[in-house]
Amino acid sequence: MKKLALLILSILILGSCNQPSEKNNIPDSEIAETEDYWSFEGRDDQATGGIKMIPIETPKGTFNVWTKRVGNNPKMKVLLLHGGPGMTHEIYESFDGFFPQEGIEYYYYDQLGSYYSDQPDDLSLWDTARFVEEVEQVRKALGLNEDNFYLFGQSWGGILAMEYALKYQDNLKGLIISNMVPSIPDYMKYNEEVLAPQLPPEVLSKIMKYEEAEDYSNEEYLGLIVEHYYPKHVIRIPPDQWPNSINRGFSHLNPDVYVTMQGPSEFGVKGDATLKNWDVKDRLKELTIPTLSIGAQYDTMNPKEMEWIANEVQNGTYLHCPNGSHLSQYDDQEHFFPGLIEFIKKVDKDS
């Protein structure tokens, strides 16, 4: 979660018409379902290809947030909450390779302050409770309800998803918490006691020197983390091979939102960041809706705590990504997507 701000800087461094149609081999019923899934006919977002700018009421006025629908399914609709805070929907473009063929409708969404949405210059808006109300307004505008609404949140989006569910779980059909633990103090402890010591001693010593001096923009500090930390715990792909969607998303991050809520450090939530003491461990047992918790072996978040979430809620399932890190939708797709899709379809079948 905390490791995403640095990527802005690191990225800067760094068939013919004559062939018979395959449709002839598909049953008419499946052809109809496929055509319905991709059809925009009769939809109010047809002219924009699924994009809607949704007005959001806030204590500081009305602003617009960007959403984009992919597919049509009246029973399975997934709203994607990106991380950061201040990241963009672009880090989920890998979903295009997996959800459509399963008939799952999903919504890209840039939260207020993020690149494709309005970016008001008011730090008081970067508040978790306000973001919860923003999600509720987006839900209503998109027509999502307890019969079809799955909320997916990863990293900071996982915090937002938990907070939303604790207030509005009656509006949900299913909840997915991906790569996020229920306590920032616990995340800090895991980072300091487990992950940091895995670094080469001389590297850790240099990083901590800059941490202690609060010299977070130092080029050597940033370079050490990009070289030694990110490829192990954020996305287990060499930086020069990162997908274009990742590069675009990270380059579009809004630092004002990020630093206000997460702080400037790459080694934990520090200073007066608003998420510094966030913790909902004692409340998760209130959740009764079907809940999937996704953890990864090499994540910045302790996978054991992700498994604990699944056991703490009243109707939980755990998905482990043995080859993944913080962005498992890219570095462990063989486990991430089959498990996620299986959960969504099972909840739908059981409802």
UniProtKB/TrEMBL annotation:
Q: Which SUPFAM superfamilies match?
A: alpha/beta-Hydrolases
Q: Where is the AB hydrolase-1 domain?
A: 78-184
Pfam name, any one: Abhydrolase_1
Alphabetized Gene3D superfamilies for the sequence: alpha/beta hydrolase
The keyword RNA-binding is assigned to this record: no
Record has Hydrolase as a keyword? yes
GO MF terms listed in the record are: hydrolase activity
Keyword terms of this UniProt record: Hydrolase
InterPro entries to which the protein is assigned, alphabetical: AB_hydrolase_1, AB_hydrolase_fold, AB_hydrolase_sf, Peptidase_S33, Pro_imino_pep
User: What is the similarity comment for this entry?
Assistant: Belongs to the peptidase S33 family.
Q: Which PANTHER family match?
A: HYDROLASE ALPHA_BETA HYDROLASE FOLD FAMILY, MONOACYLGLYCEROL LIPASE
The name of this protein is Proline iminopeptidase-family hydrolase
Q: Which organism is it from?
A: Patiriisocius hiemis
